[in-house]
Specification:
Radius of gyration: 15 Å
Structural class: mainly beta
Helix content: under 10%
Largest sheet: 7 strands, mixed
Strand content: over 45%
Shape: elongated
Order of helices and strands: EEEEEEEEEEE
Number of helices: 0
Amino acid sequence: QVQLVESGGGLVQPGGSLRLSCAASGSIFSINHMGWYRQAPGKERELVAVITSGGSTNYLDSVKGRFTISRDNAKNTVYLQMNSLKPEDTAVYYCNANLAPRVVGTYRLMDYWGKGTLVTVSA
């Protein structure tokens, strides 16, 4: 069974930094893209950053220049380095991975989600 487990959330002051990690575990054949989404109270979930298997990245406009997504393919792990955090970055951050579970005779890409980690930016 495939699982995504996030870590690294917490409380930080405005201007501070946090690093989120998300490790995919279980029987995995290959991982396509990985990304981070967030959902603030009363708002819809939005894509924050995504990284392809080849390392190409894309970011939400409001986090460009402040957040950096990276991945370690050997560890099936994706990271989100968040700098210059603002109160409006407060949200639950979710890890997403588009991957193919290792199933004999089958190759099928599926989306998996972590349970989320809370990031609170407040003085």
